[in-house]
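Board notes (copied after class):
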Amino acid sequence: PVIKQNPKLEPPKPQAVVPTTADPDSLRASAKVQLLDSILKSRNDNDPRLDTEFLDLTTSEKNALRERYSRMQKEQFNERGTVVFLLGRELKSTQDIQFLNDVVTEPPCLSLQNCQLPPVSSNHDDAPGTEITLVYPQIVTLKALDSFLASAKEESDLTKAAKITLRSGEQSKNPLVSKMARDLFRKYSGGRP
């Protein structure tokens, strides 16, 4: 008798999942991130859409931008600073302030090519402006906190959280960030150290 072998079974091919009902808020948030990526890819810091399309962000849009920030390479200084700028100009919740606290307490970047390693040669890393470039997201964070506190009409939970974030910035291992945070804290705490 002839024994028939079973045909080789292959796993089913994955099918694209198409949601039957898309969450409109998630779709808008995804569209914001796609627009941001397009603007960042163009390397046009003066794109007017940064001032028109990224105002009055919803919680979902802010969360999507925070997620996008977290996925960026540490060496993407300008791109990361742009995201901080967009989120930092709309500080309305403790989650907004917490994001800035997370940014200001990031470990300092050691070189333009690789944040984890000290510079191999000092040619690029000693160029004018390098010190600022290495901490650009943190400087944008501190400027956002300065603007927020300057416009605050009265003390609130958010202004207190902003001041705590300045205190966190004082602990930075980068002397530029530490000094700027300390100066701002003194400015908004009546000169107290």
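Comment from the instructor: Residues 23 and 67 are 18 Å apart (CA to CA). Confidence is low (pLDDT under 50) at residues 1-9, 14-20.
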